Amino acid sequence: MNEELGFNSKEGMEIFTAVSLSYAIEPTRVPDFYVTYRVNKLEHFTHGILRDIVRNALNEVAPTFTVEDIYGEKKAQFLNQVEQQIQAKVTNVGVGVQQFGFIGAPRVPGVIAQAITAKAQAIPEAERAKNELATTQAEAAKKIAEAEGDAKSAVMRAQGEADAASGRTRYRRSCSNCAGSKTSKP
Fold first, then answer.
1. 19 in the Ramachandran plot: left (φ > 0), alpha (ψ -120 to 50) or beta?
2. Do residues 61 and 81 touch, judged by C-beta distance below 8 A?
3. Mapping DSSP to helix (H, G, I), strand (E, B) and coil, where does residue 145 land?
């Protein structure tokens, strides 16, 4: 027996899912519960009345969420809002929802599931490409800095060599004057 419930997302996309729900009835409120629902077997309440309440809550909340939200990041928020809707409908007769959630992933049309999966895979790939670009840019900046450093070093070396050569020429001229004056002395 298929116990999936169907509902529509904000875009009108049909989604199917099986749900898990645990509840307890406050012992002092059992008479209120019986008077309201007129069931003597909890199976009739669980698989009939409560199932309808859950389906209605899903159909009230789902149109405020996209299929991607329900299937992904906002799933917990979606489930919480549905649980609150269910709780609001049964609190007055002493029923307390203890747990509510999906059994497995919601079932969406194959094309939509593939698109959501492709988008999820594209995000890490984009991050990887962004990191590769940053690495390439950093390596290029490093090479530019090295080249600038080498160029400045070469200019300074050439300047030093030019200054040294100029100093030797001046020294030779001044020494040649010195040598001439030494030979003229007796």
1. beta
2. yes
3. helix
Mean pLDDT confidence for 63-88: 92
Given phi > 0 = left and psi -120 to 50 = alpha, else beta, which region is 185? beta
How far is C-alpha 110 from the geometric centre of its chain's CA atoms? 23
Distance CA 155, CA 147 (A): 12
Radius of gyration of the chain (CA): 41
**By the 8 A CB rule, do 16 and 5 touch?**
yes
Provide φ and ψ at 178, rounded to 5°: -65, -40
Is 15 in contact with 70 (CB distance < 8 Å)? yes
Q: Lowest mean pLDDT: which of 66-70, 121-125, 160-164? A: 121-125
How many C-beta neighbours within 10 Å does residue 4 have? Answer: 13
How many whole angstroms from its chain centre is CA 31?
49
Lowest mean pLDDT among 48-62, 113-127, 134-148: 113-127
